[in-house]
Amino acid sequence: MRLLFLGDVVGRPGRNAVIQRLPSLRERWKLDCVIINAENAAGGFGITEAICQDILNAGADAITLGNHSFDQREALVFIERQPRLVRPANFPPGTPGRGAALVDTRAGARVLVVNVLGRLFLDPLDDPFAAADREIALCPLRQVADAILVDVHAEATSEKQALAYHLDGRVSAVVGTHTHVPTADHRILPGGTAYISDAGMCGDYESILGMDREEPVRRFLQKTPGARLEPAAGEGTLSGVAVEIDDRTGLAVRVAALRLGPKLEESRPVFWEEG
Ligand SMILES: [Fe+2]
Ligand SMILES: [Fe+2]
């Protein structure tokens, strides 16, 4: 199975990069499953129903979220009728939506998508380790799910690594999101789980984490109230990770970084480019 994950979509540049480039990538690389974190897709803050639909129409099978899940209040309502939209599993009981989704690929495989939110340098929440264990116990690899991807939306790389080794061998991939900066530590762990500390963002990298630079820089210089944060308006870059999964074991056999667009050094999954 060929699985592509793309990191936090930020504003229109991120959306445009996904909408313009994903359909042809999906076809060219014969992708079976595409999962995209879109917690910043609507003006940098949250997601609307129309944007959610645009990203699904572009070729995403599932969309994950994070600490910005409900910045657009309409998400509290439409998440209930959108089974492919997943918010952190360790949000408090009673939070609208779901923390995991079992999606069918076009070839008939079932992929469990789980989203958890880290607790270091973020809001105190339920234990993300226990939440991931719970979701995986409901749909174990090889018994119910043909592949499992866990999006660990967290600030601290230590917490992401700890969760990855905790889940190693029980899931196909653990992918970090939230920092908006791609890391170069993608690899397959000893138990067969693909891992990257952060998938990076889909957005304009000539920015502060996808946002126009002026106001964030000003906020570091002065402590006075200022303008709203707005997404930077330059051309977006796609950033994420490509994972090839063994259909028999559900574990990863290859992993590569994907970076496509201006401003970052390009990186493509050569094992899919060749054939
Ligand atoms: Fe984000
Ligand atoms: Fe985030």
Could you provide a short overview of the structure?
By secondary structure, the chain is of the alpha/beta class.
Describe what you observe in this structure.
This protein is α/β, with parallel strands linked by helices. The protein has a single domain, classed as Metallo-dependent phosphatases (Purple Acid Phosphatase, chain A, domain 2, 4-Layer Sandwich), CATH 3.60.21.10. The protein is built from 7 helices and 12 strands. The strands form 2 sheets. A 6-stranded mixed beta sheet has the order 4-3-2-1-11-12. A 6-stranded mixed beta sheet has the order 5-6-7-8-10-9, covered by helices on one side. The longest helix is centred in the first third of the chain and has 18 residues, at 11-28. The relative contact order is 0.17. The structure holds fe (ii) ion (2 copies).
